[in-house]
Every structure is written in structure tokens, then in C-alpha cells.
Amino acid sequence: MIIALADGLAMLVGILLVFGFGKGLIDVAANAQGVRIEQSYSGQIMGSFHALFSGGGLVGAGLGAVATSLDLSVQTHFMLVGASFLTIGVVASLWLFPKDPDTDTGPTVTLPSRKLIGFCAIGFCALFIEGVGNDWSAVFLETSAHASATIAALGFAAFSLTMMVGRFLADWIVDWVGPTQFIRLTAAVAATGVAVTLLAHPVLSLIGFGILGLGLAGIMPVALSLAGNFDPDSPTEPAIAAVSTAGYAGFAVGPVAIGLIAETTSLRTAFVPALGLAVLIVVFSGIVPTITRAPRDSETTA
């Protein structure tokens, strides 16, 4: 809500820093809650939680369109949305799992353990690649694929929609093929999406962004689920925080790196490293500890 009150660049940057810090804390807490729910659930469910996150993004875009059509000011729009979701968040928090008093969460700040490095690497690579669709899809379609402004605008929509669909499907596929094989298969799908996008044809590139979203959809939620579940004797929160931090690093570095490479070469060339990162996800998926879930009954460490 306070973002709408910023009256200068310095104040806006300061508020956004606080906003980003708070969002990071909420993401870690929400994913930790998701893992705890999953631990008491008979199958994989983290993908569905992240699908609702993607759905929230689409709803937010829709609310923005409605606010624009009603000629609401940015301040009014932000105040209404902020107050509404603050209320929803406070009420929803009443149903969250409380902290287990018998669980030692360990030191407040710590480097990820050696067992978590693979998960962190997967998170970094996945969210680095996500920057291709999130931040550069419209620009690529308009400049490299020479698409119309309308088609270019559909790039992000296609990417976001398939991300949501893929996350809803992820839980079922993980229960079917297992988490490690799931990450390998979806990384291959994401690489295929990048390759199709690089053909730089308006329709084919639009399809490529859709395939990319479908491939990336479940990688981060499954990596978080594995990181939080693989060691039942360790607290969930530090593992989730470590993987989330690595993912955010990729999310922050990726779009900037793509822009820098594009400035000296071309945007098509700047997308090529995403293919290599997809291969790295496959490599790292082979070295992380996993949990194999029985269909509806028990869990055994693999």
C-alpha cells in the first residue's frame, strides 16, 4: 500500500527494498508451510501450491485491467488491493501450522550444507531461465521474431498460463515418475522451449515460450519439496531459505545477464546460455538426495 505514496525515486527504491525483503520472508514461510502440509499428506502437493501462486499473478493482472477500465488512480488501486490482501493474509494465518516447540531450527544465518548445494544450483538455474519468459518474452517477439505488438503481448501470457497448468500437473507426474526423473524430463522440455523460441518466427516463438513455461513450471516447487523433505531429522525452514535464496539470485541475475549479452551481440544469442543451464539442471538432479513416496501410504528415503 505504501508504494503508492512514494513521491520520488529514492523513496520508491527504499520502499521496494522493504517490500522485497518482506516478500522473501513470506515466500520462505509459505514454502515451509507447504512442505509441512506435504509431510502429512499422502502424495506430492507442492506443485499445486505454486500453481495457485501463478494463478494469483494472472488474477492480479486482471484486477489491474479492471482498475484501469474504471479509471482508478494507482494510489486508489494499490490501497484497495493492499488492504484486501492484508486482511486475507491475517485471517488465513489463523489456520497455519504452529512452530513445533521440539524442533531446533539451528542458527539464524548459516551457509547451505553440502547436501543442499545441488538443490540450490537447480533453483538458481531454473529461475535464471525463468527470466527468459518473464522479462524478455515480449521484447524477443517484437524485436527478434518481428511479431506484431499484439502477438508480443501474448508471449508473457502464454508463458504464465502454461506455468500454472504445468504446476497443477506436476504433483500427479511426480507421483507417477518420481521427483528426480520429473526434474530431468521437465528440464528437457524447458530446453526444447528455448530451442523453438530461437527459431525467431512469431508463431513458433510464441509456442516456444508456452513450452518453456510448461517445462519450468514444476522444477522449483519439486526442488523445494525435496530440500525440505529429504532429511526428516533436520528443520525445514533453513533448507527452504537456502534454496529460495539461490533461486532469487538466479531470478535477479538472469534478466540482467541476458540484457548485457544482448547489448553486445543479439537477444537470440543471449538466450543460448539458457540451454546450457537446462543441461546443468539435469546434471544436478542426479546428485541430490531424494525421497521416494509410496503412492498413498508411506515414505522411504531413496
TrEMBL record:
Main location: membrane
A GO MF term: transmembrane transporter activity
Source domain of life: Archaea
Keywords from the named record: Membrane, Transmembrane, Transmembrane helix
Family annotation (Gene3D superfamilies): MFS general substrate transporter like domains (1.20.1250.20)
Nucleotide-binding is among the record's keywords: no
Example of a GO cellular component annotation carried by this entry: membrane
Major facilitator superfamily (MFS) profile domain residues: 57-302
Residues spanning the membrane: 6-26, 47-70, 76-96, 116-133, 145-170, 182-200, 206-227, 239-261, 267-288
Record flagged with keyword Membrane: yes
Location of this chain's protein in the cell: Membrane
Membrane topology annotation: Multi-pass membrane protein
Name this protein carries in UniProt: Integral membrane transport protein
